[in-house]
Design brief:
Low-confidence stretches: 3-9, 11-30, 544-601
Helix content: 25-40%
Number of helices: 14
Number of strands: 28
Radius of gyration: 28 Å
Shape: globular
Structural class: alpha+beta
Length: 601
């Protein structure tokens, strides 16, 4: 090799080294994570939201982290965090006064660890000098908090493995061996639920297991379960004294079973020696409630164990087939009087619509929900809050239902505001139509591509509470609001044929004069399907055909542009990117080669 050739190769190597230095050391995040969460200093409870020096708020669902010093512009990455968790961070200024309460809405999601357990990041504002995290208690020893070190799922798993912390409840592992069901049909179960004090409360809607012995760190897996159920576990200490109840907010959705049901995992907290699982009566009666200890199972394993075959909608001709729909509403939309059965007919009209049409449904309805909201109300039972957990998802249609509880509680109907200012609209949420208008305004902004529907409830002629017998004025105003916001109004209230079939003056299909039974849902569901299909069929036929444009083989980068996008949308190039370094090295080698060729010539 000539000296000149050797010299050019040397230049290539030097320049490659320089570019590599700019691109980064190549050490993975998992190897370089500096976790600022100190488990030895974490305390059960929520960080004080008025002063960093104040006593913790007493809450058994959370652990408060150690105090972490930060500065403006720092990026805090943390996880696992449950999407539905109340808040993640309490932030304080230099004087120790709380100046921010950070929730999921204030953060950017970085990655999904498992189900609704996510990694998020938050940028520190100018008035914050320290933070404390509220980590869900099931993550008491496996939380990671970093400053200016973004990490993702694989980095998190590597860090936990390095620390030898068992986080199997966050890993999608297939079941192995024979599953042992700790909640079989048995004389030892209780026909009802148990509360946090282990008091048994008779209920036709729930079934409670016998005592299941556990120890801290064990992982419980169970299904079939629905997220909207009040709670799923009651925990006891070594004396079988109740300590706390656990709902889906404080667990991890481990896998999907189908038909709106899921498998949840929960890691047993310190101080717990026994649990009692609370299941839906319909699922228990079907004989398909499965609870295992340290034996993960997936939906496929569950269905195989109970010989369950999901409905095949591949040939379904409904215009709803394959679309995604979000359902919101109160106990009637939720199905409080329904069997909540997995095998049979449960899950209100949303589940029946899914079975009949192939629409993929999410039922976010909550018993007791109202469209209006007044000081002192339970925010979990405000219709407006039901979509927030799903705000990052995409839906083809959203079906809202509300007004029964507003009428039953004599809430003022209100008037439609002409203002488009959020400051003006939020002032009217104490009225029925004001609450609906606030909901419609935000739903349209959050899901701009979804088709919106509103269901005016069927008549309740046998129910004497409040204005339940006279909901007409409520729904008349709702209809006007729907016209203003281009929401499809499904009027069951004035549908005489339907109300005659439901015999609304009797208890045949409304046993308590308010909630539909399974037969009642069978009557009402076809009317809702007809309305949805008619509208979505219209949408389908009026949507212009997409045109396909051939993509050229060579992409021209505009002058001055330093980055391009890969086919999956991720960025290439730029400082700190190996992709950019690779491109530069190839360019240098090509240049050097051409120079050598010219010299040779």
């Amino acid at each position: 090799m000539s000296k000149k050739a050797f010299k050019f190769i040397g230049i290539v190597l030097v320049m490659t080294f320089v570019l590599s230095a700019f691109a980064g050391s190549g050490v993975s995040a998992a190897e370089s994570i500096t976790n600022l969460y100190d488990n030895s200093k974490a305390q059960m409870g929520i960080p004080n939201t008025s002063s960093r020096d104040g006593a913790l708020s007493n809450n058994p669902h959370y652990f408060a982290s150690n105090l972490i010093e930060v500065k403006a512009g720092d990026v805090i990455t943390m996880g696992p965090c449950n999407v539905g968790q109340g808040h993640y961070l309490s932030a304080y200024n230099a004087s120790g006064t709380a100046v921010a309460k950070v929730s999921y809405a204030n953060c950017t999601q970085v990655d999904v660890i498992q189900g609704d357990a996510v990694i998020v990041k938050w940028t520190v504002p100018s008035n914050v000098t320290s933070i404390r995290m509220a980590t869900a208690q099931m993550y008491y020893d496996c939380t990671v908090i970093t400053v200016n070190q973004e990490f993702k799922k694989d980095d998190y798993f590597a860090e936990m493995d390095k620390q030898k912390i068992n986080i199997d409840f966050l890993r999608p592992i297939k079941a192995t061996g024979t599953l042992v069901n700790l909640f079989p049909k048995s004389d030892k179960t209780y026909a009802g639920r148990v509360d946090a004090s282990n008091k048994e409360v008779a209920s036709a809607n729930y079934r409670s297991s016998d005592y299941i012995a556990v120890k801290p760190g064990d992982v419980l897996y169970f299904g079939a379960a629905v997220s909207t159920q009040g709670y799923h576990l009651a925990l006891q200490d070594e004396n079988k004294k109740g300590t706390v109840t656990i709902n889906s907010t404080y667990m991890v959705e481990y896998d999907d079973i189908g038909r709106g049901y899921a498998i949840y995992s929960y890691r047993i907290r310190p101080g717990t020696a026994y649990v009692r699982v609370v299941a839906a009566t319909g699922v228990y009666d079907d004989g398909i409630q499965l609870v295992t200890l340290n034996q993960p199972f997936l939906g496929e394993d569950y269905r195989k164990m109970f010989n369950i075959t999901l409905t095949d909608n591949s040939s379904n001709k409904s215009p709803l087939n394959g679309l995604k729909g979000l359902f919101m509403g109160d106990s009637i939309s939720y199905g409080a009087g329904d069997t909540l059965s997995y095998l049979h007919t449960g899950r209100a009209w949303a589940g029946r619509i899914e079975d009949a049409t192939g629409l993929k449904t999410t039922n976010a309805s909550v018993s007791g929900a109202k469209a209006s909201f007044l000081a002192g109300d339970d925010s979990a039972k405000w219709l407006f809050n039901q979509y927030k957990e799903y705000s990052d998802e995409k839906f083809d249609l959203i079906v809202m239902h509300g007004g029964v509880n507003d009428a039953r509680h004599n809430r003022p109907i209100g008037t439609i505001s002409e203002s488009t200012s959020e400051g003006d609209l939020v002032k009217n949420i104490g009225t029925y139509v004001g609450g609906l208008q606030w909901l419609f305004h935000n739903i349209k902004e959050t899901f701009p591509e979804a088709k919106l529907f509103f269901i005016a409830n069927h008549r309740l002629d046998g129910h004497a509470t409040g204005q339940a017998k006279n909901m007409g004025p409520y729904f008349d105003m709702a209809k006007q609001l729907c016209e203003k916001y281009e929401v499809v109004f499904i009027d069951l209230y004035n549908n005489k044929e339907l109300n005659d079939k439901l015999q609304t003056t009797t208890t045949k299909y409304l046993p308590d004069t308010l909630h539909l039974n399974a037969e009642g849902y069978g009557i009402i569901t076809p009317y809702i399907i007809s309305a949805l299909e008619a509208e979505m069929k219209t949408e389908e036929t009026t949507t212009p055909e997409e045109t396909t444009t051939a993509v050229p083989d060579v992409t021209t980068v505009p002058e001055g542009e330093t980055t391009t996008e890969t086919p999956d949308g991720s960025k290439q190039g730029g400082c700190g990117s190996y992709a950019g370094t690779g491109f530069a090295v190839v360019a240098i080698i090509s240049l050097a080669g051409s120079m050598l060729a010219r010299k040779k010539k």
